[in-house]
Amino acid sequence: MQDQYVTIQIAGSFVYAVQKTDGSRYASAYSWTEAVKKADISIRDFLAGNSPEASPYKGSVYEKMKNPRGNKPMNGLPLEVGVAYWYYQARKGNKEAQALVRALSQEAIETRMDGALGITTTIAQVEERTTEVRDRIKQALDLLDKSLRASEEEQDDTQIEAEKAALFEQMTEEEFQSYVEQSEPVWAASRARREAKLPEHVQMINRAITQM
């Protein structure tokens, strides 16, 4: 039995992976970083760091993988290490990673519900659904950033609000609730930054009003 190499599509990203003869599975380091639009070195920095996500994998070594484009082997990492890297990137504010891990979490629930309800879905159907969810989440995160910038710079946000309304119509109830929950602390931080720029006496008046 030989190592089995495959390229799989995950929410619009392509991951080059291998199943070794002992059953262990790895994906190329490049695949993990490319999926969240980061440089190759970022996953090495992750493994060398002290984040909660990286801590269980201290001392991890790369597994050499066949390179489909040349003779030089590629570096591979176990699937759980790559997923931990994605969650780390999401926690650090990487919107590509945030949209990816949320879409995959939703996919896991949707797929299990399909099974429980006796609904048959193909891998292609699941991938299409998950990619659409990831795209909507990424669009929502980008619009949130635009709204914050427009608010802090006192710009006209009419177009942004129209884009948000169109996006909300495409969202499921769960996706919309998730967007609202994620937006609240971001808007709170934005308000705090704006208030910090006000004269001290105005800040004092505002604090007095909120305590009334």
Summarize the structure.
The protein is an alpha+beta fold. The protein has helices spanning 29-34, 41-48, 79-91, 95-117, 123-152, 158-170, 173-196, 200-211, and strands at residues 4-10, 13-19, 25-28, 63-65, 74-78. Strand 2 (13-19) and strand 3 form a beta hairpin.
General description of the model:
With 212 residues, this protein is an alpha+beta fold. It has 2 domains: 4-88, no CATH class; 95-211. The protein has helices at residues 29-34, 41-48, 79-91, 95-117, 123-152, 158-170, 173-196, 200-211, and strands at 4-10, 13-19, 25-28, 63-65, 74-78. The protein has a 5-stranded antiparallel beta sheet. Strand 4 (63-65) and strand 5 (74-78) form a beta hairpin. The model has no long low-confidence stretch (mean pLDDT 83).
Keywords:
212 residues, alpha+beta, 2 domains, 5-stranded antiparallel β-sheet, 5 strands
Mean model confidence by pLDDT: 83
Q: Quick one: how many beta strands?
A: 5
How many H/I helices?
Answer: 8
Count of the separate structural domains: 2
Counting helices, strands and paired strands, the structural category is: alpha+beta
Proportion of beta-strand residues: 5-15%
Distance between the termini: 74 Å
Helix/strand layout:
Blueprint: E1 4-10, E2 13-19, E3 25-28, H1 29-34, H2 41-48, E4 63-65, E5 74-78, H3 79-91, H4 95-117, H5 123-152, H6 158-170, H7 173-196, H8 200-211
Antiparallel strand pairs: 1-2, 2-3, 3-5, 4-5
